[in-house]
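User: My instructor asked us to take a sequence, write out its structure as tokens, and then describe one feature of it. I'm not sure where to start. Here is the sequence I was given:
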Amino acid sequence: MPAWYSGRHGLPQLIGPLASAIADVGTVRRGFRWGLPRPSTWPEAEPALPERPSNLGWARMEPVRTLRFLLQRGLLMPFTDVMTRPRIEGAEWVRGLERPAILAANHVSHADTSLLLYALSQRVRERTVVAAAADYWYRRPWLGRFVSLWLNTFPFSRTGGPQAVLSSSSQLLKSGWNLLVYPEGTRSPDGRLQDFKPGVGFLATETGAPVIPMHVRGSHRVMPKGRRLPLPAPVTIRIGKPLQPRRGETARGFTERVERAVRGLANGTEDADIRGTWIERWRASAPRGRA
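Assistant: Let's start with the prediction itself. The structure tokens for your sequence are:
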């Protein structure tokens, strides 16, 4: 009691530390963002890849395949036709593929995938999966499931090395699926073709699958990067003859050859090495059963 009345352990000595503790808590709370365990002074976190999803095999099984067929045939293809009236050149190269192939195209718009699928025959479209950026489309599980149902996508790593590219892609090719990939890695901001990443060359040289160059012109006006809603505009899709690695050709060298082919299609070339000779195109257009 004498110590209490002496002022050494009185009420002022209790209030002082308590007020200091409250001030410290307030400082800490102001320093952290709401809902995130990160101080506001830290730089923004880089987008991280989610946990590796399954191979999404459910999207390529019944009854999902039938549901996707109905959605694409009843909604996606008619909408694409009305909005863009696509003109397709070289459709004979993808009318009746006899073996799994890699479809390599430029990328300037979210509308590209529906346009490229439109250019395929129904039989080929049903056997085609689309490489979708894992760090963009699969960051949100519900979005990844939706695009897998709608477009038959699979997660494709843009940040990993060749092994990351080969893993699921080669398994799909060996299972009989065609792969639609965008070798630029991301959409072009101004519509011009960007340099191709070497992944498509590694995938082709390791699996032996042919690569079919494709180019979409006009989709940048339909839905450029940053726009959420599409606008009507005419589109032209050019398709070149299948390419395969030559003996002794490196993966990077083959990637450069595929890129030159896509650039040639963009410029409207009639080079037989890219578009094929008339007799090659005639043979490719021969009926192969149900299209």
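For the description part of your assignment, you could build on this observation: Residues 57-284 form a domain with the Glycerol-3-phosphate (1)-acyltransferase fold (CATH 3.40.1130). Try explaining in your own words what that tells you about the chain.
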